[in-house]
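Tip: read the tokens left to right.
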């Protein structure tokens, strides 16, 4: 199957168009014009191809579309937006599943096009627990898994108990919406046993939304040893769970508090100067 670099063809025509219309549009106007030109290019007949970009991909079978993606990625050719559109138009994103076992580039492309479809969450979990995968790809998969947390909850709990990517697993568990004593117990355990990440674990409890955590948060916020940052996160968590804490606290010797107040004073001074 012969492939064409349609994006390179478009860039060539775009350069000529911009040169011909120099000064006609502002920078902001070009941002609106260029996508319209690209869309129109999709239906432009190209003599060397014998078809339009959209027509070329429309004639390919589903499996050929996936092969086209793999070939582009392997050869460093841009995966055309027209190719992606054809895949999405057919609802063929599921055909991209084999790419999730492929190279890093193939995985990144497949994750970007498949998105948070439930059929891919198992593969996404495989990726974030795969030591060979890059951090950026893992983070993308994590963000998608947090939207489907309940679908991978059992694996998240199992991985946590086995010490596999515990931080990621806690994030996933905190986004689950189906009440679970085992998840609640894990989040409380982390909150009580990990003072170095107190603010983060308070946020997990707030996101999980189980009101039973309120008393643990109220007890902790009374601790005179916590810093200003931890205090603010605890207060936010308490309020998000419907609680309230009004006791006055003195953080005048806390470095983070002093730094924040200094920054606020600088910002206020800048605005006061500008308004004079």
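Filled-in amino acids:
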């Amino acid at each position: 199957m012969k492939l064409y670099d349609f994006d390179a063809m478009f860039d060539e025509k775009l350069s000529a168009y911009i040169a011909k219309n120099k000064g006609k549009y502002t920078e902001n106007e070009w941002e609106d014009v260029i996508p319209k030109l690209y869309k129109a290019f999709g239906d432009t007949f190209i003599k060397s191809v014998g078809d339009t970009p959209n027509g070329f991909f429309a004639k390919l079978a589903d499996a050929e579309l996936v092969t086209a993606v793999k070939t582009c990625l392997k050869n460093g050719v841009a995966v055309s937006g027209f190719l992606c559109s054809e895949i999405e138009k057919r609802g063929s994103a599921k055909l991209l599943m084999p790419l999730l076992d492929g190279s890093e580039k193939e995985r990144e492309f497949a994750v970007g096009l498949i998105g948070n479809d439930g059929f891919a969450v198992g593969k996404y979990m495989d990726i974030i627990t795969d030591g060979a995968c890059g951090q950026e790809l893992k983070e993308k998969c994590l963000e998608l898994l947090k939207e489907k947390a309940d679908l991978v909850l059992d694996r998240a709990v199992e991985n946590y108990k086995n010490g596999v990517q515990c931080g990621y697993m806690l994030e996933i568990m905190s986004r689950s919406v189906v009440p679970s004593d085992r998840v609640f117990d894990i989040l409380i355990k982390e909150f009580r046993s990990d003072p170095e990440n107190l603010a983060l674990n308070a946020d997990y409890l707030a996101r999980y939304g189980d009101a039973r955590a309120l008393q643990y948060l109220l007890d902790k916020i009374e601790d005179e040893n916590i810093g200003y940052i931890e205090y603010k996160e605890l207060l936010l968590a308490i309020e998000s769970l419907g609680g309230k804490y009004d006791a006055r606290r003195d953080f005048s010797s806390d470095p983070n508090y002093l730094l924040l107040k200094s920054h606020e004073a600088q910002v206020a001074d800048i605005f006061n100067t500008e308004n004079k």
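The first helix runs from residue 6 to 20. The two ends are 69 Å apart (CA to CA).
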